[in-house]
Amino acid sequence: ADLGLRAEEDIWTRWSFMWRNRKTILGLVGSRCKVCHTPQYPPQHVCVNPDCGAIDQMEEYPFSYRRGRIFNYTADMLAASIDPPAIHGQIDFEGGGRFWFDFTDCTLDDLRVGMRVRMSFRKKYYDEKRDICGYFWKAVPEKEG
């Protein structure tokens, strides 16, 4: 990615953080409240459902194989991206849960609110100084028809 002026700060991957959060990052595992069954990503200790608010009553909840629909989206020509423009938006998962993801395998013109997506584990960035690729989940629009 051409990071240009946005790369003044040398941000490196903290491996202790990656290890502690490996299920969340690599597996796209969030949490679901045992009281009201509200799923959420990333995992939380307090339920996001305003009618519940249970504390430490969560179980692991995988999102990686769940389909979703586009809630909103945008393109950013200034954000650091391997393939500009950076296209990202919020995905509403079937069964509940919403999170902000990058899109891949599409252009901005291919997208529309309500379109079905699936998740795919893809390259997020490349750190040239350390020769490390970072990966995360991206939303892939499903072809209609």
Question: Which CATH architecture of the largest domain?
Answer: Beta Barrel
CATH topology of the largest domain: OB fold (Dihydrolipoamide Acetyltransferase, E2P)
Number of strands: 8
Number of domains: 2
| Biggest β-sheet description | 5 strands, mixed, barrel
Q: State which percent range the strand residues make up.
A: 35-45%
Strand order of the largest sheet: 4-5-6-8-7
Written description of the protein model:
The protein is globular. It is built from two helices and eight strands. It has two domains: 14-62; 65-145, OB fold (Dihydrolipoamide Acetyltransferase, E2P). A hairpin with a 4-residue loop joins strand 5 and strand 6. The N and C termini lie far apart (34 Å). By secondary structure, the protein is mainly beta.
Chain-wise SSE layout:
Elements: H1 15-20, H2 22-26, E1 29-33, E2 39-40, E3 58-62, E4 68-76, E5 86-93, E6 98-103, E7 116-127, E8 132-141
Parallel strand pairs: 6-8
Antiparallel strand pairs: 1-2, 1-3, 4-5, 4-7, 5-6, 7-8
